[in-house]
Amino acid sequence: MANDPIHQFQISKLAPLGEVGGVEFALTNSAVFMIATVAAVAGFLIVGSSSRSLVPGRWQSMTEMAYEFVAKTLRDAAGSEGMRFFPLVFSLFVFVLFANLLGMFPYFFTVTSHIIVTFALAMLVILTVIAYGFMRNGIGFLKLFVPSGIPGILMPLVIAIEVISFLSRPISLSVRLFANMLAGHITLKVFAGFVTSLTAFGAVGVVGSVLPLLMTVALTGLEFLVAFLQAYVFTVLTCMYLNDAVHPGH
Amino acid sequence: MATTTPEHGAEAAGSFPPFDPSTFGSQLLWLAITFGVLYWLMSKVALPRLSDILEVRRDRIMSDLDEAQRLKDESEEAIASYEQALAEARKKAHDIALVARDKAQADVDAEQAKVDTALGVKMAEAEASIAETRKQAMSEVSSIAEDTTSELVNALIGTKPTKAALKKAVSAAEEAA
Q: Which pLDDT belongs to residue B6?
């Protein structure tokens, strides 16, 4: 069981909370790590910025960097009008980033390695885009699917492609994050598993296990990069989709 | 963390955990709760505070820059007025020197003219006195020459020539000389 690379994704119930309409709710290890993620984010940002220094210390600098990084990403993608979504985009970024990074601790559960979580976050983004898009532009939001400067004969085809690409957004957004975290953790576990199983073969095995050990070390570094990169990619795509709601014309 | 629990039942045991729908309800519930709390914390506490910090710093930097610009302008003004005063003083000093030189020149010229006239008067006086002296001397020279000639003629021929003859001879000699 210890070497089963899928085991780390197992949801375990810590305390059942009951059942509503055939759906059971419980406090799970996943829930604990979601709470831990929020606690870590809140600790990092709220404690880090509590001194409100004019000349920031290291910690406060990091909180300011996070703020300006996300603010710049959103402003570049969606303009100053998109800044109304800043709390949402920032929350998404820090939630995904901290969940990914917490998952890098051995024996910790990775919240974002479950498709239902990433899909829910992606749907939150897409539904926000649709709701705000119609609220702000009315029926004009549908211009999103009608690129300007296309000859009339190609119009049905282009509109069909645009609609399909819009509908596939929540799927690609959620699967990208989920699959990256899942695959990365499985790969790490598999290579780390090689180390233990090779050492079982005596001296030759111990020597041979150096290779997968080096691979595990390298992959750990790569996974830290992926943890940040996927949070960033999720954020950038969110910003681009929100830009469609703010400026629907291509 | 807790090991796999048997609560998930037989259908969950073999399936891939991320695709096990029996856990979706709990995950969605907790995601909604935790993300809601996070959103609230971010939008009400963390982000306003950070934006406040950055705003205050930006304002402070701007006001410091403005202050620095103001001081720079002031010092440039001071330098300009100082240089103007310096140029004025230099011009004034130059004018004063010029006036003083002109005045000194005029004084010198006046003194020179005065001395020159005084000298001219003295020279004229001296020339007159010289001419007088010479005239006197010359007239004395004629009488001495007449006396000497009379004595010489007396010694040579034993007779004294007449006064008129002597006068004639001396003036003839004087004219020849």
A: 42
